[in-house]
Amino acid sequence: xxxxxxxxxxxxxxxxxxxxxxxxxxxxxxxxxxxxxxxxxxxxxxxxxxxxxxxxxxxxxxxxxxxxx
Length: 69
What we know:
Largest sheet: none
Number of strands: 0
Radius of gyration: 24 Å
């Protein structure tokens, strides 16, 4: 798109996008799913907190390590 604008094929990136981008589908959020995901997120956060404590207490080891450590 930027090359098309630079070459003068399109007058702007907005114009290029209108000519080149075709929307096949539009996805609308399902707020019922959002409630489900929120409940799962809360459970995951609790499990993660417990897992961190197990690592801190040297019962398990972390599967993630920061680069350079």
